[in-house]
Amino acid sequence: MGEEIAGELRRAERFLKLALDEAKQGFGLDDPHVAAATQNLAELYRVSRQYDLAGPLYEQALKSLRGTFGELDVRTAAALHNAAGFYLETGNAEKAQECYESALQAKRAVMGPGHPSVCDSLLPLARLLRRKGRSSEALAMLQQQLRFLEDAGLGTSKGALMLLGQQAAFHKGDGHADRARPPLQRCYDIERGVDPQSLTTAGAAEALAGVLQDLGEYDEARRLLEESLSIQTMRRRNAIPADQMLRLVNLEMKVATPDSFLRAHNMAQRCCDSVESLIQKYDAITAGQTGWVGRWFGPKAASQEQIEKTYKAVPGAVHTLALAYMSLSAAQMALRRPEDVEASLQRGVDVTTCALLQRAHFQADSSNSSPSERQHNAQVEDRILDDRQAFLEQLLEDAARAGEEYKKQRAESIRQWQEDLAKVKQLRETIKEFLALSRELSAAK
């Protein structure tokens, strides 16, 4: 797969170089067609992380457009925005800020301060300022742009929703859930007014519920999460959205009453059963089966494309199932069911070492994987190992608190858990070293 992507990038490079040469010959060096072709080639080099080749091309295109159209032009603004993204990606925050500010100024001057395109440059600039410790300035910038959109009759537009969401994220990141609530409430009201059954409404409900949960308003948070869960279930044709259900489980655990613990237990169990069923389906697909053609014709063969896509989905499903079993064990502990707790934790260990997951890891670590793909695969594997480590540590912690009779009966299991935990920690150290080396090599390039 990695070699195929590399081949596609090489073919794209040849095509874009040819387009640039033809633009130069057909239009002349200072023509905007040449600047556009130059930017396209620069973008390809940026995506493929050939930053030494991309940088000069961004600067060349920007110089040409400034010379032809001046600073206050839509094309110059677009080039400034692209260059800012490149500088931000390569760690040149000062240059990125300079380009974003110039792009923002040009867009406001040419298209008007209320134009939706202004947000494209304003949002990354606000995030950059906040990273530099200028949070109040970033928030003021967002609020000012929101007023511009409202004055232009765009107070419920996509741009306005993005601004409100970013405001809330800044406030929540600063630990001010009370200040994050109003913009998230407004987002929810806008989305629900457009389509109460849309996925964007479900997302807005979840975001608002998270803040209300932080504020201790559990009843309203529960209502919103249940609304989101209902929408997601309907949109996914009655398949249980595990992530949304686990958010409800976490809320019920925070409420911490006997009834809420029981609700958390039942939802977590339902979530476990649903994801277990999904993983069984994945197992069948990777074995070459997608279902039955008919009573007499046997299983329908899965295509190679289906098998590859399924293998890629396996680690995410296993991670979700691990979270579900951890939530289930917490609810069982709260309900004082120690035997069930151990069974759930042990199932979590088994899930994170299942044969399907090992096959998925092997498939991902094929010899054709690119360095970036191998780095991503290592991060995925480390996340699963983190899940396994959590289960083993909880099993050992519970065993340490148990009586001597339990320790005698479970001596072999305890020894196995200790050995497994030592292996997991060693594997995670190896992955940590690999990722550190990968980052150093990327930086060197």
TrEMBL record:
Coiled coil: none
SMART domains with a match to the protein in the record: TPR
Protein name (database record): TPR-like protein
Record-linked InterPro entries: TPR-like_helical_dom_sf (IPR011990), TPR_rpt (IPR019734)
Superkingdom to which the source organism belongs: Eukaryota
Organism annotation: Coccomyxa subellipsoidea (strain C-169) (Green microalga)
